[in-house]
Write a structure and sequence with these properties.
The complex is a heterodimer of chains A (493) and B (350). With 493 residues, chain A is of the alpha/beta class. Chain A is 33% helix and 23% strand. Chain A starts with a strand and ends with a helix. Chain B is built from 13 helices and no strands. The chains are: A alpha/beta (493), B mainly alpha (350). The structure holds adenosine-5'-triphosphate and magnesium ion (MG).
Chain lengths: 493, 350
């Protein structure tokens, strides 16, 4: 298969064979063409050249419905369920031919019948909004199976899951593939998942198939070499001793409500000193998102105060700039960027109104903005078709890099980062972690909210555990113990 | 990359053209039902709009207020709001102009005209600005509030011109006092097009520069593209929402002033003849681009201008041009779902 986007070759003569009943992993750096490949299979994109054979027969797949008819199904990185409807309703929703009046009794029986054949069960009457991320992911998979899909494509399914949840789901998938019930195509950046669960591997680099084979014959070093080619992985930045400085970020009794008016953050207090990374651990949905939104000015705290460098802080442009507060929120396309604006414009969100990017004070200098963009694209290795490409045409990892470049390119006093490495390939992960460490070494106060415990253990000077909106446990880095932290994450009592 | 912008420009033109074409076909079918040859209708439509110098002047006169009322929808739209209050803002602007104009007896004409323009602008700006404030501080949906404000504006005007400021020497229909011949701005030299056209074109150009070249326009684009991103980089959401509404309302208010000081001389029900609503249509057809508004307003002005001829020549009912406009509006709205869907404008077409 071959697919061009303008002058860019996203897929270059890639041939892959997925054996029935196998779990086949596709590995590759950000922008390698993994999503493009499966989108071609699902009929979202038309390949420029190449054929797709399903069970030995050639098919030109024109749209997703056609792919569904052939038994191909896809689970996306982000959920596509309707939160206000129940599990059962969500299962039925996707059916191609729903009668105008739904025979609920019969359908329910069918679902229950179906669930009996499945290795995992969900309560059919619970609204989806009340499910944890892992359960939602299971439901997404359940839905695909219920709809009779025989080939299941998972695009980075574990980014939203805890390692335990991820292992459980991948284990289930492998089991079902082993029973010949299903063929699974797994897109991921995580080598561990590939080596532990996949039968076959294909590695893509810059749109080309550069290697692959049976997972058991491949060592992780070999896979890494295939993925990044001659590229280098950033050295982990070393932690330098910083003096015990004053607190740059100081939260006092902060209370934040969620969309439903319920307390999501319940009176938390926390100090982050200059030259320190404080990690916030916790299972997602325990108030982390609301905490970050309050710091980002996307949500008004119900009570409490935020201090930055000794003075009360309210997240407005002037104060952000003067006190050098920067953010790396999760889901950058939702929280930090405008997809329909260009890369250059997105890179200028922080400083389009500063003298060096304006003329006569009020006029934007397109030239300056473009120049800044070209420099950042180069320095941060953003893969884009030029500075004028719309941001939404970049691969997921490169959108993340764009925000990183914008937020870290200037001097930083306070940095709030939430899951900064989710969805990134490991070269990028290493780079971003070293950037965070660098920022700390240069004297920034970094608040790192992450669901990845390994990341926190590597970076944080101090770890607190967030549970149901409160900080329930705190430990300095040298006394941090995974078991204890894990216990507090699950339930502090 | 070679012009992803240029490409989306081509896409916009192609889709708008398709909407226009579909409109003509549907309207053709409509007149064919009455036993009229659609191609004759198209020809008369063209002749009435652009067929002679006389027709062109008429068209441009009609286009002037449309340019201004279109901005009332287009400017807030860039911040992600759907404002449909151009009609009300125009009426309020017109009434305010009269109220101030009649008090300016001894003032030199240029000063008085400037004052009246400012009044109309201010009144319209405050009118739609109020809807913006309701939206930002109280969460009232701006589409609903501006729609209701239209009714209120028209009702207030009707009340004033049938009572408190009625000029009883006007016997045909209720109208307000006149601002006086001395304050009328007249026509562009050598034409029968009034000065309002210049106001419309200049305002569109100024707004274009404001929205496309300034830091304000950039901030509005971020807000319109993604509120959460705008919040995250600390942009002042409230003031931005409010200013786009005020600017939009001001443009429509100015249209009201012009209707008074270039056309009628007084306020009456003939202020509320649908320029505000047609402006919504213009804004959508132009995809909220102030430069494109100049063009589209001229096109729509042509349709209005040829309406009379169309009716007389084919004995069509009054409502025929309204039908045409309605079809056009539906076609435009329907066509907006095509953006990003047409295969030829996808990446393969480069
Ligand atoms: N609609 C599009 N228009 C233009 N370019 C695109 C489009 N979609 C993807 N690309 C480009 O194609 C290349 C491959 O992108 P793809 O999304 O397949 O990467 P990926 O391997 O899934 O990366 P990631 O791990 O970051 O998600 C990237 O360089 C991207 O910028
Ligand atoms: Mg991808």
């Amino acid at each position: 298969m071959t697919k061009h986007f303008g002058p860019l070759v996203a897929l270059d003569n890639v041939s892959i064979r997925f054996e029935p009943g196998s779990l086949h992993a596709i590995l590759g750096e950000n922008g390698a063409g993994k999503s493009t490949l499966v989108k071609c299979m699902m009929g979202y994109y038309r390949p420029d050249a190449g054929d797709i054979f399903v069970s030995g027969e050639k098919h030109a797949i024109n749209n997703p419905r056609h792919a569904h008819q052939l038994g191909l199904g896809m689970v996306y990185q982000h959920f596509t369920l309707v939160p206000s409807m129940t599990v059962a309703e969500n299962l039925i929703l996707g059916e191609a031919q729903l009668p105008p009046i739904i025979p609920w009794e019969a359908e329910r029986e069918r679902i229950e019948e179906f669930q009996r054949t499945m290795p995992f069960k969900l309560d059919l009457d619970r609204p989806v909004a009340s499910l944890a991320a892992g359960e939602k992911q299971k439901l997404e998979i359940l839905k695909q199976l219920f709809l009779g899909r025989r080939v299941l494509i998972l695009d980075e399914p574990t980014t939203v899951l805890t390692p335990a949840e991820a292992d459980q789901i991948l284990g289930l998938m492998r089991g079902m593939a082993g029973n010949q019930q299903l063929t699974v195509i797994l897109i991921t950046h995580k080598l561990r998942e590939v080596l532990d669960f996949a039968g076959d591997v294909t590695v893509l680099r810059a749109g080309r198939r550069v290697g692959g084979g049976a997972a058991k014959d491949l060592a992780s070093e070999e896979l890494v070499r295939m993925m990044i080619g001659a590229g280098k992985i950033a050295r982990a930045a070393t932690r330098v001793e910083t003096p015990t400085n004053a607190a740059y970020l100081d939260l006092r009794d902060l209370t934040v409500e969620n969309d439903n008016g319920l307390m999501a953050v319940r009176g938390v207090s926390l100090q982050v000193r200059a030259g320190e990374i404080v990690g916030v651990a916790g299972v997602s949905g325990n108030g982390q998102r609301e905490l970050v939104e309050a710091l980002a000015g996307q949500r008004q705290p119900a009570s409490g105060e935020m201090f930055v460098r000794g003075a009360v802080y309210s997240p407005r442009r002037g104060e952000m700039r003067q006190r050098k507060v920067f953010l790396l929120p999760e889901e950058p396309l939702r929280n930090a960027c405008v997809g329909v604006m260009s890369v250059a414009e997105n890179l200028a969100f922080r400083n389009f109104d500063e003298p060096r990017n304006t003329r006569y004070r009020w006029l934007i200098s397109r030239r300056a903005i473009r120049g800044q963009a070209l420099d950042l694209i180069d320095r941060y290795g953003i893969k884009a078709q030029g500075a004028e490409a719309r941001l939404e045409t970049l691969s997921g990892g490169n959108v993340q890099r764009t925000v990183l470049a914008r937020e870290l390119c200037e001097e930083v006093s306070v940095l709030v980062a939430q899951n900064p490495c989710s969805g990134l390939d490991f070269a990028a992960v290493a780079e971003i972690r070293s950037q965070l460490m660098d920022a700390r070494n240069r004297g920034a106060a970094v608040l790192l909210i992450s669901e990845d415990l390994d990341e926190l253990l590597e970076l944080a000077d101090r770890i607190v555990v967030m549970f149901e909106g409160k900080f329930v446990y705190e430990t300095p880095r040298d006394q941090a113990d995974v078991q204890t932290i894990g216990r507090y994450m699950a339930s502090p009592t | 990359m070679v012009g992803s912008r240029a490409k989306s420009g081509v896409e916009a033109v192609a889709i708008s053209a398709a909407a226009l074409l579909a409109t003509l076909v549907l309207f053709g079918a409509f007149v064919a039902l009455r036993g009229i040859n659609p191609f004759d209708v198209y020809r008369v439509l063209y002749l009435g709009a652009f067929g002679s110098w006389f027709a062109i002047q008429h068209t441009l006169t009609q286009a002037a207020p449309l340019m201004l009322t279109a901005l009332c929808t287009a400017v807030p739209a860039r911040a992600g709001l759907l404002v449909i209050g151009g009609e009300g803002a125009l009426v309020v602007g017109g009434v305010a102009t009269v109220l101030v104009g009649v008090t300016l007896m001894g003032v030199p004409a240029p000063v008085a005209i400037a004052l009246m323009c400012m009044t109309g602008t201010l009144a319209g700006g405050l009118w739609i600005g109020a809807a913006g404030a309701l939206r930002h501080y109280r969460g009232v949906h701006e589409t609903i509030s501006t729609l209701l404000l239209n009714y209120i504006a028209i009702a207030v005007m009707n009340h004033l011109v049938t009572g408190p400021i009625r000029d009883f020497s006007q016997v045909l229909k209720p109208a307000s006092w006149s601002v006086g011949e001395r304050f009328m701005i007249g026509d562009l030299p050598g034409t029968s097009i009034h000065w309002g056209l210049a106001f419309g074109v200049v305002t569109c150009l100024l707004v274009y520069v404001l929205m496309r070249r300034t830091t304000f326009g950039f901030a509005v684009d971020i807000l319109g593209g993604n509120v959460r991103a705008a919040q995250m980089v600390g942009l002042p959401i409230g003031p931005l929402v409010l200013s786009t509404c005020v600017i939009g309302g001001a443009a429509a208010g100015l249209a009201g002033t012009i209707e008074v000081i270039a056309v009628h001389g007084f306020a009456s029900a003939s202020l509320a003849v649908g320029y505000g609503y047609a402006g919504i249509l213009v804004a959508f057809l132009a995809r909220h681009n102030p430069m494109a508004i100049i063009l589209i307003a001229t096109l729509l002005g042509g349709i209005s201008a040829s309406g009379g001829l169309l009716q007389r020549r084919f004995d069509l009912p009054d409502a025929a041009t309204l039908v045409l406009r309605g079809i056009l509006f539906l076609a435009v709205l329907a066509s907006s779902t095509l953006y990003g869907r047409l295969k030829i404008f996808q990446s393969r077409a480069v």
